[in-house]
Recover the amino acids of this structure.
């Protein structure tokens, strides 16, 4: 019995010491080729070790790859590779600016993640970038109430042919900028750019 206890103690000590009984703590912590110390998951969009290549328009403006609209701050920020490159303040919305757009005619601006899916240089407002509202969820919600979700939501400038800037919130749920601001945004935002609209 004593011999068995001694053998068990020896095996236990050998297992605890591991292959590096020489006291090399650094090598003992190094993972082997068969171990996976962390789960393998795709990195987040902007968490990359490589240095991103910046893209510019023909006249030297940086091209945006993501837009964030903060309705409560009345702020639009354009990003490139996770870095803010332009900010526009004092945004104008519809007559009921707070809350997510649900139905046609509710005068609200949508909230959520959409895309800039097309543009209209000949709109009733100075240049228009179309937001991809309604999405599938927006359509299903409105249909459940027997209503239309509406559409034709744009980022645009002021009414064509009208000098100056309109006062207050006046759109039908769109996002209005000054004409100079939409002219710059028009150049730096390609079709397909994601836009996140926050409350």
């Amino acid at each position: 019995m004593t011999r068995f206890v001694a053998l068990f103690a020896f095996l236990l000590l050998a297992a605890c010491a591991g292959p590096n009984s020489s006291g090399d703590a650094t090598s003992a912590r190094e993972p082997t080729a068969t171990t996976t110390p962390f789960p393998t998951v795709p990195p987040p969009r902007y968490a990359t070790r490589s240095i991103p290549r910046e893209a510019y328009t023909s006249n030297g403006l940086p091209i945006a790859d993501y837009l964030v609209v903060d309705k409560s701050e009345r702020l639009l920020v354009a990003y490139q590779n996770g870095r803010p490159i332009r900010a526009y303040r004092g945004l104008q919305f519809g007559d009921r600016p707070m809350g997510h757009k649900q139905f046609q005619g509710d005068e609200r601006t949508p909230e959520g993640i959409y895309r800039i899916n097309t543009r209209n240089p000949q709109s009733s407002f100075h240049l228009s970038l179309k937001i991809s509202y309604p999405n599938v969820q927006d359509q299903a919600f409105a249909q459940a109430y027997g209503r239309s979700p509406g559409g034709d939501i744009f980022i645009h400038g002021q009414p064509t042919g009208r000098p100056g800037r309109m006062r207050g919130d006046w759109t039908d749920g769109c996002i209005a900028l000054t004409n100079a601001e939409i002219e710059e945004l028009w150049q730096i935002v390609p079709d397909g750019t994601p836009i996140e609209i926050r409350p």
